[in-house]
């Protein structure tokens, strides 16, 4: 009898929790999935404000430079493989052409 009463109480608590959790999620969504809200005092335009990250162009350019160098190394590897039929990973081990 105690087991049935405990299960009934647990079911009531679980159902009450589901209803309250689905009722309010703490956001005011403009559309489904568009729920971002700025904090009070956040500017309409970020550029030039204290929230502007002001990225250094040289830092942003590092990745494109490394990708360009990687593509050059891969081109050397492919050219050597087509010429010799043997794949050499280390570009320093590829004989000069």
UniProtKB/TrEMBL annotation:
The keyword Metal-binding does not apply. Transmembrane segments: none annotated. It catalyses: 2 Fe(III)-[cytochrome cL] + a primary alcohol = 2 Fe(II)-[cytochrome cL] + an aldehyde + 2 H(+). It is an enzyme of class 1 (oxidoreductase). Keywords: Disulfide bond, Methanol utilization, Oxidoreductase, Signal. InterPro entries: Meth_DH_bsu (IPR003420), Meth_DH_bsu_sf (IPR036557). GO terms for biological process: methanol oxidation. Disulfide bonds join 29-35. Its EC number is 1.1.2.7. It holds the Pfam family MDH. Residues 1-23 form the signal peptide. SUPFAM superfamilies: Methanol dehydrogenase subunit (SSF48666). The keyword Transferase does not apply. One of its GO terms (molecular function) is alcohol dehydrogenase (cytochrome c(L)) activity. Belongs to the methanol dehydrogenase subunit 2 family. Catalyzes the oxidation of primary alcohols including methanol. Heterotetramer composed of 2 alpha and 2 beta subunits. This is Methanol dehydrogenase [cytochrome c] subunit 2. The lineage of its organism: Bacteria, Pseudomonadati, Pseudomonadota, Alphaproteobacteria, Hyphomicrobiales.
């Amino acid at each position: 009898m105690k087991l049935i009463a405990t299960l009934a109480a647990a079911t009531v608590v679980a159902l009450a929790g589901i209803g309250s959790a689905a009722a309010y999620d703490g956001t005011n969504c403009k559309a489904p999935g568009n729920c971002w809200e700025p904090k009070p005092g956040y500017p309409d335009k970020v550029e030039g404000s204290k929230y502007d990250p002001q990225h250094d162009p040289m830092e942003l350019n590092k990745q494109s430079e490394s990708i360009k160098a990687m593509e050059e190394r891969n081109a050397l590897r492919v050219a050597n493989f087509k010429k010799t039929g043997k794949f050499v990973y280390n570009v320093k081990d590829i004989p000069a052409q």
